[in-house]
Amino acid sequence: MKTKLTALALAATLAAAAPARAELVVPSLSYRTGPYGANGTQYADGFADYFTLLNERDGGIGGERIQVPECETAYNTEKGVECYEATKDTGALVYNPLSTGITYQLIPKVSVDKKVLYTPGYGRTSAKNGKVFEWVFNAPANYWDGASVAIKYLLDENGGDLSGKKIALVYHNSAYGKEPIRTLQKLSEKHGFELSEIPIDPPGQEQKSQWLQIRRERPDYVIMYGWGVMNQAAIQEAANIRFPMENFIGIWWAGSEVDVLPVGAGANGYKALTFNGVGMDYPVYDDMRKFVIEPGKASQGGQYVGSALYSRGMYAAVVIAEAIRKAQEIAGTAAIDAQQLRDGFEQLDITPERLTEIGLPDFGPEISLSCANHGGSGMARLQQWDAEAKQWNLISDFTEPDQEVLEPLIAEDSEAYAKEAGITPRDCN
Amino acid sequence: MEQLIFAGEVFLNGLMTGVMYALVALGFVLIFKASGVFNYAQGVLALFAALTLVGIQKGQVPFADLINAVFGSRLEQFGWTVPAALAIVLAALVMVLLAFLIETLILQHLVGQAPIILFMATIGLAYFLEGLGDVMWGANIKALDVGLPQGISDGIEQVTAGWFGYGYFIDRLDIWATIIAAALVCALVLFSQYTRQGRAMRAVADDHQAALSVGISLRFIWVMVWSIAGFVALVAGIMWGTKSGVQFSLSLIALKALPVLMLGGFTSIPGAIVGGLIIGVGEKLFEFFIGPMVGGATENWFAYVLALLFLVFRPQGLFGERIIERV
Fold first, then answer.
1. CA A106 to each of CA A119, A345, A421, B132: distance values in angstroms, whole numbers, following the listed order
2. Count of alpha carbons within 13 Å of A286, Cβ hemisphere only?
3. How far apart are CA B245 and CA B137, in angstroms?
4. CA pair distance B134, B259, nearest whole angstrom
5. Residue B323: its pLDDT value, please?
6. Which residues of B touch A216 (CB under 8 A)?
7. Looking at the predicted structure, is the pLDDT value of residue A12 above 60?
8. CA atoms within 13 A on the CB side of B151
9. What is the least distance, in Å, from the CA of B192 to any CA of chain A?
10. A428: which of A39, A41, A261, A371 fits an S-S bond (Cβ 3.0–4.6 Å)?
11. ipTM of the complex in this document
12. Residue A285: is its pLDDT beyond 80?
């Protein structure tokens, strides 16, 4: 009798310890610690909260609840790979590691393990070519799109002519920061502006030399590809040398509240690219309050809801959820696998009407993907920081990048990768 | 000629940056001098001190997230703010308390152990404090404002523009950092030369056993030295935190102090200052003259190259004590 009771108790304990049955597993390779933890935390919160909303409000997607197990990477490539290896056999469908370094390591792995890698706004730019990168998606925009949209914006500001203007690129001296260099070089040849490249070694707290150089060379505009403390230090140094903030444009990873708040009034007027809306003026937040925040189910009590990075994490979750919906529709089953999810991504079509239905009108650009196009239209817009109101204001419409310049670059880079990795590009016709 | 004028500006900014490096290096020197321990946690002490200062100043409830998670409460703020001067005093007291706890819970149990064991203990301490800081005050980036001015000094810009036809950029925060660092070094020198506790500290630094034999309390000296190093970390945290917000990366400023220590020696307060200045000026001038030829971003590695070059000629550092062991 005693043995039976022990066995029953053991079985009950094991049942309680096992994860709840969930067919849709979307691991969150997040970073809440380390030098980039302040950024990673907000993104991870938005990512998790949207899936919590779907679980609580709709019972998941197509009746299947979504499980979002978190694994801490500390923005460390080795830890990121460990997290991937530890979770890939748990039924994981898709990974979104928010790190270009981790992405580069996972690209060859996901094609072997047949998992989807979704890297919105980061990662390997040429992964847009679905013929070569079968398992990687980077819609709605990539680093090269960002550089091109920034230049298009400056063209608009200068009556379509940038010849003779000086533009400085201040960049994180890493694979990520170097991404836009080639694009900007091509664009400078096309539009006749002078480009200077100014690297900053990570983490980037000390940038005096670089900003003294900017003060001496007096560029008309500065474009920044930064991350973490580099952003705050750069914006502070720009304010210190009285560089006109309205001529300073950051990529979307240099456009969150954490980048500008420490600088105070000095950051007023700073601009940044974005491919998602910010703030809480969207109907989805009514449901978010009702089903997630007020019942106490929001990540970290919902303290970052509506911030730029929270919104971007939530937007990544929205795109994944829509891809899952599409995959379920194609496969005719709610319990899809990663291969079916890839098919869902390749037929993904998030129209403005669909975004409105979700409760996020005009939150992102239209996303329409295909076998060959894994990166979407590349549209982005600009936001500007109002230091007094402590908020970002959208100041331009979604703008398409210069595909005439970007497409050959993407084809060249992806073909080089295919050759190096021994990949025969798919026939998407 | 124009290059020389620009180089003058770079030189002055290098000096100012060197002072900021020296502020971090000072904390390492104090602890190493008194106890022979290379305190790996010095950078994290600066982070912890700055986090505590902002938390106190803004009336933040410590451990709020943890309390809220356990009890389902919604605590965040006490509802008051504390003036900067009082907040600095309170943060300094917290650093004294921390020094006492470090001595009682860690160092006391490791008396007589090899220096490498003490070093490993400080690595553990660094990771513990990183986590404690996060849990206590949250991981978000905090703006720090204790009233120090920032931005270009108009006076210097105008004067130099009159002299050279090009106005120099000197950050007012760097000027203040220089004044504060100079005052701090003077106070430390006066303390160690003219006070009973200071002399006891020097005695312990010279010879632990001899100091013990004349009745000096090793425990008291260690608590005192860690308290002073905690205060120096607080000053460094204020300066660096004012520049780019208080955040995890603040702990990485320790990396900037290592070449300063290699160059200046681990046991000399003037060495930390002079070492900081040489590294600051050296890396800035190298970036200015050579950086453009090699693609820039030379400062991080050149500081170490410079320190290693000095080590070839003076292995003990510029002001370090030469150790001769005869067998």
1. 11, 18, 14, 32
2. 5
3. 14
4. 28
5. 63
6. 6
7. no
8. 12
9. 32
10. A371
11. 0.89
12. yes
Q: Are A156 and A271 spatial neighbours (Cβ–Cβ below 8 Å)?
A: no
Residue type, A350: I
Q: Under DSSP, is residue A303 helix (H, G, I), strand (E, B) or coil?
A: coil
Helix (H, G, I), strand (E, B) or coil at B179: helix
**Interatomic CA distance for residues B68 and A301, integer angstroms:** 9
Does the pLDDT value for residue B282 go beyond 60? Answer: yes
Closest partner residue to B151 (CB to CB) among A228, A239, A262 is A239
pTM value? 0.90
Ranges A390-399, B132-141, B205-214, B307-316, most confident = A390-399
List, for residues B263-277, the tens digit of each pLDDT value. Answer: 988 888 888 999 999
Q: A240 vs B296: CB contact, 8 Å cut-off?
A: no
**Measured between CB atoms, does A201 come within 8 Å of chain B?**
yes
Indicate whether A8 pLDDT > 60.
Answer: no
B241 in Cβ contact with B233 (< 8 Å):
no
Helix orientation angle between A229-240 and B218-244, rounded to the nearest 10 degrees:
70
- 3-class SS of residue A367: strand
Q: Is the pLDDT of residue A6 over 50?
A: no
- Who among A41, A209, A263 is closest to B284 (CB)? A209
Cα A220 to Cα A191: distance, rounded to the nearest angstrom: 15
Partners of residue B176 in chain A, C-beta under 8 Å? none
User: Does the beta-carbon distance from A201 to B291 stay under 8 Å?
Assistant: no
Give the single-character DSSP code of B60: B
Question: Which tokens go with A250?
Answer: 């950051």
| Nearest in space to B102 (alpha carbons), one of B197, B35, B23 | B35
Among B141, B297, B300, beta carbon nearest to A258: B141
Give the side-chain half-sphere CA count within 13 A for B172. Answer: 13
What are the phi and psi torsion angles at B164 (to 5°)? -110, -10
Write the pLDDT tens digit of every residue in A163-220: 999 999 999 998 899 999 999 999 999 999 999 999 999 889 889 999 999 999 999 9
Q: Which amino acid, one-letter code, is at A73? A: T
Hey, are the CB atoms on A209 and B9 less than 8 Å from each other? no
CA distance B249 to chain A (A): 5
- Per-residue pLDDT, A5: 45
